[in-house]
Amino acid sequence: MNRVRAAAPQLAGLVPYDPKYLPAEAYLSANENPRDVDAEVRAVIAKRIAEVPLNRYPDPLANRLRDMIAEANGLDRACVLVGNGGDELLFDLALAWGGPGRSFLNLPPTFSVYEANARLTNTRCVNVPRREDFSIDEEAVLARVAAGDIDFVIVTSPNNPTGLRAPVAFIEQLLAATDALVLVDEAYFEFSRETVRPLLEANENLVILRTFSKAFSLAGVRLGYILANPAVIEEFLKVRQPYSVDALSQVVGEVVFEMRARFEPGIREIIEERARVAEALRTLPGVTVYPSDSNWVLLSLEGADEAWQYLYDRGILVRDFSRAPMLEGCLRATVGTPEQNDAFVGTLRAFIIERNG
Ligand code: PMP
Fold it and tell me: What ipTM does the predicted assembly reach?
């Protein structure tokens, strides 16, 4: 067989993103919505999809959906860009603001895709680790951007996987302290009920990332969007893939966005269940529960890897961070349906009882 020369050097040592999605009865590992879109929404989607021409390229900019999002956020079309999931827009960010000789400020532990994108684009990744309680080390971040060499920062609010939102007052301070582009990742903001949208007009360096994958039950469709000032959107337009949001996804997004009020009870249920799960977990001996503004609960316990296996053997898939840097001993459990949550808490309780003999 002929040989192939080595891939680009920045790929050496990079591990492909692995969501560790295994067959299970209760999927509590990927922060998805436990409820699929309801039958009525699905019926409207089916009808509209049947009318989509498949032989034509989609609208490259998904302008119908873009206009709906713009209007709902009190913005012009020029301030919105729709992408193939938030993931695509995060990669576009690294392409547009990163690159050789450029620097990204990361606040770990956080979503691992940010650092991977920096590596892929030969962007230097500067870490300002969170404090012991996972709060942002605000003074250290402000001091680091003051050096003037940071090109972009990502602040995740609420932060995945630790759970809490970033203080708005801190984001405001950060935006004022630097001309670096600050992306506030609001993938889970529907569960925290807090957004930095009001800061957009006064801060040209702010980008807000959102997704349809969580509150709107569309992880399978791949739709995300950014809100930013037009000059920033213009730069994203230069690097994006021309037809990344296919015609079917555009139609699904339009229907779901039109009918988004129907998702509100599901969001409320998740918020209520989050409190119930956290409270139940706090009664378990040896379990530390971290406060959460999102649709999961992060916890730590001794023997977390064994607990993960015990849960998985009983059909419950949660995310194992027990060997991840700064997250030693941690598991992340997405808030599921009340039944799934009961099964999760009950099974973890059984594990602890068995282990403690
Ligand atoms: N940001 C954060 C913090 C996330 O957790 C996720 C999903 N795992 C995303 C962005 C991207 O979501 P999606 O590509 O499904 O829109």
Answer: 0.99
